[in-house]
Amino acid sequence: MARFRTWAGIALAGALCVSLTACSSTGGKRAEDARKAAAQGRAAVSTPRWTFAMITHSGDGDTFWDIVQEGAEEAARKDNIDFLYSHDDEAQQQAQLVDAAVDKKVDGIIVSLAKPDALKDSVARAVKAGIPVITVNSGSARSKEFGALAHIGQDETVAGEAVGEELNERGRKNALCVLHEQGNVGHEQRCDGVAKTFRGTLQRLYVNGTNMPDVQSGIEAKLQSDRSVDAVVTLGAPYADTAVKARESAGSKAEIDTFDLNAKVATGLRDGILGFAVDQQPFLQGYEAVDLLWLYRYNDDTLGGGRPVLTGPQIVDKKQAASLLAYTRRGTR
């Protein structure tokens, strides 16, 4: 049932091979030394103390972005980087944070492009100032256009297509795609991808993701009014638990599936409360973004050849839940 996207794994193996210089016996020793140094909280390199800023569209308390940040900080410790993290779920405020990083004359910027049009001028300003930019998680379709060196993340349409295929294999006929942030292009792409491959009926439900009671009541009302809905797909791990509560209140038997992982999702998969999840490896997104910026500053290296460096999608279900729990609890998955 669960299908691992081997092409993504191959791409990542190549990326990690470069970033960790672990493709030979000598490289392997260097990689091991780097891991030991990072674990001890010290740099594994002797390059200058560069400053990198990461600015994301995360809201407060978003566990997904906590994991991205943890991955970035881990790479920053290894690479002797002074790492600055800031976030705002309002696009204009996020753009202002990018402008502030440019004004500080940082040595590199990592930015998510959930609402790319609002970030375009700020990213262009960074590029014009000679600051290398890498985009992460959202905005792969606009990354190259904006002048970024690379994009790290999953292709949201491809991820949605994987979900549609999984729903087909599970025999679902009427699915509900719950969008919790209007205007987020990545969320629309996910639902578009599901619609592309799903052979059943796909409905969309827009909710206010900053208000969990509103999310629950919206899903509950839909499940009560349409008993034919047999699958609910949420677009973020925190919303899966809310969808489970809505299902119980509505007396529905719909399967709850979700994009992204956290400890609750892994537990839900293990216990059969959730059907499956889509893992895009947020820890790796943060880690690789910092590491690729370091490689560019150090050796003018780039990855991707103008295409995204993919970290997903990977469909996971009950079979993988037990092993995933250890990683989600330590904040790396």
UniProtKB/TrEMBL annotation:
SUPFAM superfamilies: Periplasmic binding protein-like I. Belongs to the bacterial solute-binding protein 2 family. Residues 52-295 form the Periplasmic binding protein domain. Its main location: other. Residues 1-24 form the signal peptide. It comes from the Bacteria. Keywords: Signal. It is found in: Cell envelope. Coiled coil: none annotated. It holds the Pfam family Peripla_BP_4. This is Sugar ABC transporter substrate-binding protein.
